[in-house]
Write the structure tokens for this entry.
Amino acid sequence: MFEDGTIINELFIERLNYFIYVILLLIGLHGMIAKNNLIKKLIGMSIFQTAIILFYVSVGVKEGATIPIYLPEHDPHGSHASHGDENGTDEAVHGPVVLEAGMVKGYANPLPHVLMLTAIVVGVATLGLALALCLRIYQGYGTIEEDEILAKIERQEMRSKPSIIVKSADSSKSKTSGSDKSVSKPKVSSSTSTKRSKARPKAKAKIASTATKAKTSGAKSVSPKPKPAASKSTTTGTKKSPAKPKTAASKSTSKPKPKSRSKPKAKPPARAKATSTAKKATASKPKPRTPKK
Amino acid sequence: MKKLSLIPVLVVGALLIYAADDFPEWGSPTAPASASPLSSHFISNTGVDTEVPNMVTAVLADYRGFDTMFETVVVFIAGMAVLAILKNSSGPNSKKKNFHIETEPDIIVTNTVRLLIPVIQIFAFYVLAHGHVSPGGGFQGGVVMGASFIMIALSWDLEKALARFPMDRCFIVAGLGIVLYGGIGLLSMFLGGEFLDYAELANILPVSREMARYHAMLGVEIGVGLTVTAIMFALYANLATEGRLKGGL
Amino acid sequence: MMENAIAWILIFPLFGSVACALLGMGNKKICYPIAVLSMAGSLWGGIETLRQVIASEVHTVSYIFGGWTLDKYPRGVGIEFHADILGILITLVVLGVGFIVAIYSKLPVQDETPNKEPLFYTLFLLQITGLAGICLTGDAFNLYVLIEVAALTGYGLIAMGSNRAAAATFNYVILGTIGASLYLLGVGYIYIKTGTLNMVGIQDVIVANGLADSSTMQVAFVLVGIGILIKMAFFPFHAWLPNAYCNAPTVTSSLLAPLVTKVMIYVMIRMVLSVFGVEFSFESTMWVDVMPWLVVVAIICAAVMALAQREIKRMLAYLIVAEVGYMVGGVWIYNYYGLIGSIFHVISDACMTLCLFLGAGLILRKAKTTHFDGLRGLFSKMPLTMTGFFIGGFSIIGLPPTCGFFSKWYLITGGMVSQRWEYMVVLMFSTMVMVVLFFRLIERIHLAVSESGENLGHGHGDLGLAKEQTRFDEGPLSMLIPLLLAATVVLVVGIYNQDIVNLIEIFLSEFNLPKGEGH
């Protein structure tokens, strides 16, 4: 089984170094794609880059060669340059000489080491920048698990989306939205309370179940609206402060029933509408999600 | 989801193992990479061209000096970008956790570090300057130097380290490193050569063309070391305190 | 000084950025003039280099940093900047777009990222340095370093926005690092078989040693290809692009959207034509048969997703993905006209995407939103802005005399001549989709009608306001003039397209590309 020429010999014995770095690379790549925690992704990135560095360094290996720094006898400033050789004759070479081919074989290839100095530094810089991003994400979202961040982003978008639609839609639409909110409110409030009490990984399942509940409860008037809101528009992501006075203004100008709703209660009806749209949104966009996991 | 992500990983793995079929033998002196005219030129002619015994430093700072300049720029970008991301940023969660752990600096640690840090810094200068003859150079020396400042921050607290090396001075030093590197290149260009052709500096320095390369390499490595020192410390200070430069580890 | 013009292209922004970082700490207001002046100097260097390229007999300018000239030293000892016609044209596009965005950037940077102007302009100028360097370099590893310079500055520029931007950037960091590292691995494989990193040197060794059948080189080609496809947001690796460009600050998306993906397409063209060579890429691998079908899927999915968006910037982001599909398809149908179309489309797409994103920035500033529902009747308030925006839109659709028409013409000719009917059909289909997109937008902006057809205002586009409130309310001049300049460039590139195509034909004449059996 271990004779020359078989795949096991080729892979494991003669080219062991390449095989090892391929395993490391796959571990790193899998970490970057599959892990949920952002810091684990970065550790995967680090392992991935380290594997590539190991590959390059292994390219520069030369059997029987020493490191790529001139030995004293070839040193351009070394002893042979200043005094002559042991015979005392003064025809010793002063200054550096070009090495001939036999001597060249005695030194390892310097180029891969140089390239990898650069690659290591670039990897460190990327890691530093990515860690700063993790800090910023933690400040903004309070978590560094990717699925929780996505859920929070969706909720923020759904919360801010009705403000745009309510602002620019005409009064007839706000009437239907107000009635729909009142109808779906009792059902959603119970489901949201159950949602908050359940464990966090089940949040998505709960969102789906509330979506079905909200759908059955007279969501016919909601259906024309999810079409404009089906996309994950994040216009107000950067302009949250102008959006907030608009929500207050729009809510004050609509009917008295929606007006009596206070701010915390505004969230569940928005979430009810949002969950039905979220289901449509998630259905329409499976592809961008899958690489993230 | 985790099972689904195994598919691209395994595809990449299969691809890489298929490629290993045609690789030259590991360590063979006749491999294309080791026997190419490029590699032979570097090994045989570095002494003649630059009079620097360390071939890696010669290739890094002289033959491929343009790459090294951009590597320094990458370090600079990392520091700038971390500052840009974390400056004036505070979300709803930034004040919740209490990062500041109230402890007194330990007397054994502080006194040991007080003795060690000058030695570390001298070693950093040695690594930088001796990079021509032994393994070392600008990046390595700069990292050791930056680490010495981080050590002050770890043993006492960040305020003491910032008193020695304030944040705006960090960025001035980092910028000066790049100006030094680029300035040597520009000077060579004004003296008639290409950008980063250090041999032209022999027109103003009283040395031969090869020794001009030797000395310019040292100057360039000093520039690199300055930038790396400053950015290493700046990265630590900003990341440990979320940009606020108060409290922290 | 003139013979070093190609070095000045990079030196101006590099020193400008360090000046912004150092001097900006004292006085924030000095960063904007420094940025504009650096871009002007760099643009001068680019135009001078173009003159030199056209004037030389082999139509290239070769500049080796460090003075390791080719007469005394082997090729590859020093890092070479090899500017041929393709490289210098794309560099000029990069510098031109950078110059226009630099002028545009004064007010949005102050408003969206206050107190961070020095940092912003430092990263801005370094981004231009990286992108221009990518287009000029002749060394494969230097290309990796410059790709990382452009990528890191891009991450910093995008993440300067909101927290949502930081989340989008993290995804971009992960995908971008995978892409760049796969490229680096591919270069490592090339190095292990050829022993050199210089692009011309690699081509020589592949031809001399007959490495076309080597499994290592084939895998190197695939790795380099996948790495570049990830960075150019080719479907299905495009997941980072919509979120990153939507949530970024205005100036960042105006700078990155026209440039980053197009420069990566240049890298692909360079790898396919100059590094691996036409025989290797098209005849020894099987990608010529597979890629056009992937392109078809990419364009259809991107166009359909663009149709589903209700927000301008996100719609434009998906349009970028579709345009990337056009250009990749133009390369892989393996035809002379397809390549002309692809290269010309790189130039024209940069201009028209610039136009559209500058317009979107102005709309955001004045109407406070880029959601479709907030744009009713905007034409009467901002006619100049809307004209500029729609010139970009017409160019994407492909109406003459904008440049988009001519690039689509060459791409369709290439598809027809090489008998790739799938590519032609999908080009027509996506043109229809884009017509629908833009005319829907035109109707919404021009008239003030709601979704159900009810007229909201008292007539033609006045949002129901009183008469004296509907006078012109254009954006500030420092943002309006760059937009109109970009629109003019779109028209000028279209009108003078024959000169540019002649230059591209000079470049392509040294490769052996099939021209088809006449058209």
Observations:
- Chain A touches chain B through 71 residues (CB under 8 Å).
- Confidence is low (pLDDT under 50) at residues 81-93, 166-293 of chain A.
- Residues 146-292 of chain A form one domain.
